[in-house]
Design goal:
The complex is a heterodimer of chains A (182) and B (498). Chain A has 182 residues and is mainly alpha-helical. Chain A has one domain (3-172). Chain A has 7 helices and 4 strands, in the order αββααββαααα. Chain B contains 20 helices and no strands. Classes of the chains: A mainly alpha (182), B mainly alpha (498).
């Protein structure tokens, strides 16, 4: 399947997940309620913890988002010579990202069940996964862009060829220069 | 020292505003044409461009509204912050190369210019400009309101200024902003962004350190207080819930590609290969600055819960209240300047792209050419948009009070839903058609405004902007596949082949 096809299929999947979520029964106090003491503050409602079904929907929504991010990165990098070897590193980084996301959801499930929370750097475990793993993880994708720019994003040969093509086209049709005035 | 707190803060603000005005006058001498006014002569270095991208992204929404959201909802809004690393990378991957090469091939000076070149459609140019104008009005009003609220919180503690009205604060804030944007256009904007971005990074680091010492036990102490009050608030979803947080995450990660005030900067650097060095500058600066968002919000919530600080009247007061109560007077002065910097650095970009829409893009869509004396009219349009946004800010404050961050999220969502398919996908997929772009923009605007105006509540706290964006993406693909294969101009096709 072509890259744009992957993006489209995942977008359809995201739409389907949203439809499922919107139709999933919402508990009366599923979202935040006014704090009983402090007016500008909220507390979670008594039904705030997602049930098992909603947790699955949420995990799927997050997992599809990660796939969508990777597909968009591939779409942006793709040239007429294809992905030039970027596909495998992108998939590997995406799987790592997905594993962290899954660990966060698993940690949250046990956190939501109550008891003494497992703490890491002062934060409950699922929050620590979010802050210290999920947030920095995309640096892998950033590295591909920064380090692999000449190889995967725009090769010097492609840029030189573009220069030549644009120069040839300009020479062919001296298109009126749309100079902006003062 | 404490008795000098307010004079120091006021002096810091005065110095900052004077510097902005100075940049405006300096840039005035370098702005000779509409191309200079809108595109900075396409000559920005790596560091200036990186700081401009970062500081345009992080606005009053983040520096004032962000801590307010954490104060109100716990960890929920941190999903907006953590979307930044992947969001910037997606944005650069999809657009930094294409937009810079479009600019090289066609001398484009605005995003609608690039859209018109890509789709060979003046209707697409018009709809893109219209979406920008609508989003700018809402988003710019949010920035001006945030500035005025911060200014009022400072003045009300200063002898002789205690009864300064919100109208006066809006007028002062808007006047400085409009002055340097009118005189110096985008050149003033990007070089003030450099100053503003630097102030934001430094002040965020200092605030983060201060916040850790403001409460017993530091971050762990704050977390313990929050956990005792409500374990969910310090869990990963805060009080909003899982689906709501994930919808924010998606909208801010992918939606960044549709923010015209940010992506327009991709056309301004000297060389396409600079993008690989601009990206880390933007990400690192954003990440450091986001520490202010999280730390102030968490610590203020914990201090109030502990009874160590009086309850806040509004959540948006979290950042100003923290700085007034806990920061050293000199630090408070620097950080208040940082708050203004964050707001102005985004607002100036909005004024610039809004003016471009009015004097450059919409006339071209209808008449095939821009207005005569484009630079002159660009300056008039900048004033007009600034004044209109200030009026809207006052209306929003007095008639329809909402949290600054929620207004900002609506503005972000409007741009994201309207422009992500047309720009981010359409600039990378040759099969995309003008009809699909037009329908995606129109439908997303209707859906977004319908949800906002009629206050439609979506189950599980899912953000309306996420629904509008996914709908517009699906429509964009579907209609493109049903349309005839569009014909591209040879130069555009060559750019899309790279």
């Amino acid at each position: 399947m072509k890259t744009w096809g992957v993006v489209f299929v995942i977008a359809l999947g995201l739409a389907a997940i949203l439809v499922a979520a919107v139709n999933w029964p919402e508990q009366p106090q599923g979202q935040g309620v006014d704090h009983p003491e402090f007016a500008a503050m909220q507390q979670s409602g008594i039904d705030a913890k997602p049930d098992a079904g909603l947790l699955w929907i949420g995990w799927s929504f997050g997992a599809l988002q990660i796939a969508f991010f990777a597909a968009l990165l591939a779409l942006g990098a793709r040239s007429r010579r294809g992905l030039r070897g970027l596909g495998v590193p992108l998939i590997a980084a995406s799987l790592f990202y997905l594993a962290i996301w899954t660990a966060l959801v698993v940690a949250y499930r046990s956190y939501a069940n109550g008891g003494d929370p497992v703490l890491f750097l002062g934060f409950p475990a699922p929050t620590a996964w979010m802050l210290f793993a999920l947030w920095p993880c995309p640096i892998l994708f950033t590295l591909y862009y920064v380090v692999g720019f000449d190889r995967w994003i725009a090769t010097p040969e492609d840029l030189a060829e573009l220069e030549r093509t644009l120069a040839r086209l300009r020479a062919q049709s001296e298109s009126p220069n749309e100079e902006t005035d003062r | 020292m404490e008795e000098l707190r307010n004079p120091i803060i006021l002096a810091s603000l005065a110095i900052y505003m004077a510097a902005c005005i100075g940049f405006g006058l300096w840039a005035l001498r370098r702005t000779h044409s509409a191309r200079d006014f809108f595109m900075a002569g396409r000559n920005l270095g790596v560091f200036v461009a990186g700081m401009a991208v970062f500081s345009s992204t992080l606005s009053g929404f983040a520096f004032v509204g962000g801590p307010g959201l954490v104060y109100a909802m716990g960890m929920s809004s941190v999903w907006i912050v953590i979307s930044s690393a992947i969001g910037f990378t997606i944005s650069f991957s999809l657009l930094a190369k294409r937009l810079r090469l479009f600019a090289q091939a066609r001398d484009t000076i605005s995003l609608p210019d690039a859209v018109a070149a890509r789709y060979r459609s003046e209707a697409s140019r018009f709809l893109t400009a219209l979406a920008i104008l609508l989003g700018v009005m809402g988003y710019l009003a949010t920035q001006i309101l945030a500035m005025a609220m911060v200014l009022q919180s400072i003045l009300e503690r200063s002898a002789g200024f205690g009864d300064t009205s919100m109208v006066a604060c809006v007028a002062i804030s808007a006047a400085v902003l409009i002055f340097y944007c009118v005189t110096g256009g985008i050149i003033a904007s990007v070089y003030t962004d450099l100053l503003q971005g630097t102030v934001m990074v430094v002040s965020s680091l200092l605030v983060f350190a201060t916040a850790l010492f403001a409460i017993d036990g530091g971050a762990a102490g704050a977390v313990a207080v929050l956990h005792a009050d409500d374990p969910e608030s310090i869990g990963p979803w805060g009080t909003l819930g899982m689906m709501g947080c994930l919808s924010w995450f998606f909208m801010f990660a992918v939606g960044g590609v549709g923010q015209p005030h940010v992506v327009t900067k991709y056309m301004m650097n000297k060389n396409v290969r600079d993008a690989r060095r601009i990206l880390p500058v933007s990400i690192i600066s954003y990440t450091i600055s986001a520490l202010l968002w999280i730390s102030i919000g968490l610590v203020m919530r914990a201090l109030v819960l502990q009874g160590a600080h009086p309850a806040l009247a509004t959540a948006d007061a979290a950042a100003p209240a923290f700085l007034q109560a806990y920061a050293h007077p000199v630090l408070a002065g620097v950080v208040f300047a940082g708050l203004f910097a964050a707001i102005m650095s985004t607002a100036d970009s909005f004024l610039n792209i809004g003016a471009a829409a009015i004097v450059h893009d919409i006339p071209r869509a209808f008449r095939g050419r821009s207005l005569m004396r484009e630079l002159y009219w660009a300056r008039i349009a900048t004033v007009a948009i600034g004044v209109a946004a200030a009026a809207f800010a006052l209306y929003s404050h007095y008639m329809n009070a909402r949290l600054i961050a929620l207004l900002g999220a609506f503005g972000w969502g409007t741009f994201a839903a309207a422009l992500v398919p047309t720009v981010a996908i359409g600039f990378n997929w040759k099969r995309a058609s003008a009809l699909a772009a037009n329908v995606a923009i129109a439908v997303s605007l209707v859906v977004n405004f319908w949800i906002e105006l009629f206050d439609i509540e979506i189950p599980h706290g899912i953000h309306g902007g996420t629904i509008a964006m996914i709908l517009s993406i699906v429509l964009f693909f579907g209609i493109s596949l049903l349309s005839q294969q569009p014909k591209l101009d040879p130069d555009i096709e060559a750019v899309m082949d790279v």
